[in-house]
């Protein structure tokens, strides 16, 4: 047979060769293969669009005709190219002036090189700061308390309870503060009983950074005006609700990158950070940690490692507002009188308002007004940045109160650098000038007490302040300040203060100060040496000399309270040249529920002994918690009734949930997106969780229930064997009606979830064959991991 095949090969071969030779031109029996070049002369590709080495992250249809590339004008405009250079319809990008188009077949990209001015400027927020998150809030109540008791030898003792009650929900926060005093011994009877301080209902709007307050409020004020306590309503801007916002102008550094580039920014010699830039014009904004005068050095590095350094001077003033940004508040109500003396004492109806507006990044305008019966006041001012030469401020205020006219002029200058800073502030007032702070002074116009004169109560006629600080590097820091005050009866107060400080070894420091009262002609001196000892302890030695008290030498030792609780203590001794020796000692202890302190201080024959307990009681989600004092926000962690679950706040352990599955986390900063997580290592094996970490921010002075839902599921592992007692092969699939498919692992073991009391298993083997088995789930009150088997899986025919 093999011989026959060899004999047939030769004739067949000649027949094929011959038929090829006899074929006439135009025969269609075997057409030629298509020409690849002809296909590429007109084709449509979907390519990534790259402009000046910048990947636009867009895939666009590209038509190729005779080595020309056509792209829709809409795609080019959406990629950022200017409309004035792009015609309508399908655009031959290869024919555009000053444009080069290349096709990257390997990367399936269309590479366009265009003039730099065609690329839109990209604004890069160098430091975006705190990201904006929607704050969470819940419903609950808390009571902050501070119980203080003391007794002094030969005088007597007192006890006081300070409190803050706070109720919060999604609408706002209601708070009330006060104190209760009681004399325990001796003749100290002043201010006994209950004293109410403030009761306020607050509503916040984080989107607009505004706040409504109803009740006891404090009016807004500028640097050249005064605040007063009013019982009424206040509405205004509150930028503390938006820590993600930078309200003052920051420098913007512009440039142009020809290729993808990284930039390092150095502020006053310190590396502030790094960011990536794409080709084209760029502007860097939101430079971090800048205030005063300095230099920013931008070091750009391209893909080839070439570096270019650019130095840009700047001056930043936090007293300014960004261009177009406004700030202000208005308060209307009755003036509060005898605060801290009377519970309820309100006077005349009054109103106060302040407003600031950033006209430009160099100029902020200010205005302030006050009104009451027989009082009108209005003022205007401005804060102006003088380029890199500092900031000047000025304001003029005119008032008419109880028939008298008066005015106030205030001005100042500030300049800050890394090496030194200068600050001056001045004010001049007329005798008739008045405002709400003076309006309710009952003896202001008592002619019997003032000899027929009308002084402006506590306001001075002239005030002048000068301050200078100099950073001398390794030689320390020097400061000097002079304050001059002249009253309307020409009494002068002039104070001069000089200081010097220097870091020594480690974190120890030396401080020296001297001050002089020019009217008295006396000097006061102080010297202090601070010596840290380890992470928690410190010692201090100091001495001072005053004209009235002579010289005093002190020694102090302090052990700080650990952040997670524990003990703290303090001991001090002072030798006084004109009095008996002074000594003090204190001991403190804190856990998650309460802080206790106590100690004694005084001279040997008149010691004062004191004790204090402070903390907070919180009611939320039907649970009562004891915690450390809560000044801002807090979170309650819920683990669905599972006790003993470790909880972390910002990756630091803060405790375990109680037997009901709750833990209160105090000391939370509002509007900061913090991380709350739980450790699931010791949870029962049949516990299922949706997540183990949540990152949320909380509303100011509110609480929130952070839930980690847990579900107890019927789970178990099964050991599957075939009819010969061998383990079911690896990677076999276990099917159950309406359940997810499970995979068989080593030794025939499979992990099954969502089990029923009776479970039928259908196993598909790797060779395509199947087998079946079943088992009954036993009770598992301790939620321990259960293993069933070996179960015999019988093959199906």
TrEMBL record:
The keyword Cell division does not apply. It comes from the Bacteria. Keywords: Cell outer membrane, Fimbrium biogenesis, Membrane, Signal, Transmembrane, Transport. GO terms for biological process: pilus assembly. InterPro entries: Fimb_usher (IPR000015), Fimbrial_membr_usher_CS (IPR018030), FimD_plug_dom (IPR042186), PapC-like_C (IPR025949), PapC-like_C_sf (IPR043142). Gene3D superfamilies: 2.60.40.2070, 2.60.40.3110, Outer membrane usher protein FimD, plug domain. It is a multi-pass membrane protein. It holds the Pfam family PapC_C. Residues 1-23 form the signal peptide. GO terms for cellular component: cell outer membrane. It is found in: Cell outer membrane. Residues 720-777 form the PapC-like C-terminal domain. One of its GO terms (molecular function) is fimbrial usher porin activity. PANTHER family: OUTER MEMBRANE USHER PROTEIN, SLR0019 PROTEIN. Belongs to the fimbrial export usher family. This is Outer membrane usher protein. It comes from Kosakonia sacchari.
């Amino acid at each position: 047979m093999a011989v026959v095949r060899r004999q047939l090969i030769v004739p067949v071969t000649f027949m094929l060769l011959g038929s090829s030779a006899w074929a006439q031109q135009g025969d269609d029996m075997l057409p030629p293969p298509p020409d690849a070049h002809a296909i590429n002369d007109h084709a449509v590709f979907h390519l990534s669009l790259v402009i000046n080495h910048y990947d636009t992250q867009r895939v666009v249809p590209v038509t190729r005709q005779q080595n020309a590339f056509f792209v829709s004008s809409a795609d080019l405009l959406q990629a950022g190219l200017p409309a004035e250079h792009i015609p309508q319809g399908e655009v031959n990008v290869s024919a555009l002036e000053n444009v080069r188009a290349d096709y990257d077949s390997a990367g399936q990209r269309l590479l366009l090189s265009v003039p730099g001015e065609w690329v839109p400027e990209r604004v890069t927020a160098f430091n975006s700061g705190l990201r904006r998150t929607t704050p969470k809030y819940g419903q609950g109540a808390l009571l902050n308390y501070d119980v203080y008791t003391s007794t002094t030898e030969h005088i007597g003792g007192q006890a006081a309870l300070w409190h803050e009650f706070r109720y919060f929900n999604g609408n706002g926060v209601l708070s009330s503060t006060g104190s209760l005093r009681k004399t325990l011994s001796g003749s100290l009877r002043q201010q006994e009983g209950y004293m109410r301080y403030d009761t306020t209902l607050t509503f916040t709007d984080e989107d607009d950074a505004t706040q409504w307050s109803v009740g006891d409020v404090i009016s807004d004020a500028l640097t050249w005006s005064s605040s007063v306590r009013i019982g009424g309503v206040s509405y205004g801007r509150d930028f503390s609700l938006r820590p993600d916002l930078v309200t003052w102008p920051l420098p913007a550094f512009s440039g142009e990158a020809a290729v993808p580039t990284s930039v390092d920014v150095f502020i006053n010699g310190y590396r502030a950070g790094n960011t990536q830039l794409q080709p084209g014009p760029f502007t860097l904004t939101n430079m971090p940690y800048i205030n005063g005068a300095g230099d920013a050095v931008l070091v750009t590095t391209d893909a080839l490692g070439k570096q270019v350094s650019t130095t840009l001077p700047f001056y930043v003033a936090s007293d300014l507002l960004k261009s177009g940004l406004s700030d202000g508040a208005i308060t209307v109500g009755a003036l509060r009188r005898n605060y801290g003396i009377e519970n309820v004492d309100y006077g005349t109806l009054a109103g106060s308002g302040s407003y600031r507006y950033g006209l430009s990044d160099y100029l902020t305008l200010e205005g302030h007004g006050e009104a009451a019966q027989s009082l009108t006041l209005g003022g205007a001012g401005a804060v102006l940045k003088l380029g890199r030469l500092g900031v000047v401020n000025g304001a003029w205020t005119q008032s008419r109160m109880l028939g008298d006219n008066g005015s106030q002029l205030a001005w100042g200058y500030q300049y800050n650098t890394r090496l030194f800073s200068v600050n001056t502030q001045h004010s001049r007032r007329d005798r008739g000038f008045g405002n709400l702070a003076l309006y309710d002074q009952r003896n202001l116009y008592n002619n019997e007490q003032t000899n027929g004169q009308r002084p402006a109560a506590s306001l001075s006629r002239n005030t002048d302040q000068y301050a200078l600080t100099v950073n001398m590097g390794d030689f320390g820091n020097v400061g000097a300040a002079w304050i001059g005050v002249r009253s309307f009866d020409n009494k002068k107060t002039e104070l001069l203060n000089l200081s010097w400080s220097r870091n020594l070894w480690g974190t120890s420091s030396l401080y020296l100060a001297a001050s002089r009262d020019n009217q008295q002609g006396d000097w006061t001196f102080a010297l202090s040496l601070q010596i840290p000892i380890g992470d928690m302890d410190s010692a201090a030695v100091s001495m001072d000399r005053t004209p009235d008290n002579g010289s005093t030498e002190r020694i102090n030792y302090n052990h700080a309270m650990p952040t997670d609780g524990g003990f703290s203590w303090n001991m001090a001794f002072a030798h006084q040249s004109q009095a008996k020796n002074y000594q003090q000692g204190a001991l403190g202890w804190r856990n998650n529920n309460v802080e206790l302190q106590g100690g004694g201080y005084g001279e040997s024959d008149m010691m004062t002994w004191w004790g204090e307990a402070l903390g907070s009681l919180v009611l939320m989600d039907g649970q009562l918690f004891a915690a450390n004092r809560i000044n801002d926000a807090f979170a309650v962690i819920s683990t669905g009734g599972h006790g003993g679950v470790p909880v972390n706040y910002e990756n630091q352990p803060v405790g375990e949930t109680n037997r009901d599955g709750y833990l209160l986390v105090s000391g939370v900063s509002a509007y900061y997106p913090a991380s709350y997580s739980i450790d699931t290592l010791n949870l029962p094996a049949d516990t299922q969780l949706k997540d183990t970490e949540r990152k949320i921010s909380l509303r100011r002075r509110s609480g929130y229930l952070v839930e980690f839902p847990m579900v107890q599921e019927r789970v178990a592992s099964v050991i599957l064997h075939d009819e010969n007692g061998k383990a079911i092969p690896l990677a076999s699939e276990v099917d159950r009606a309406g359940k997810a498919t499970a995979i068989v692992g080593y030794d025939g073991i499979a992990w099954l979830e969502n089990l029923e009391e009776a479970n039928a298993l259908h196993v598909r083997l790797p060779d395509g064959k199947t087998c079946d088995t079943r088992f009954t789930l036993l009770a598992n009150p301790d939620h321990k991991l259960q293993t069933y088997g070996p179960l015999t899986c019988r093959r199906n025919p």
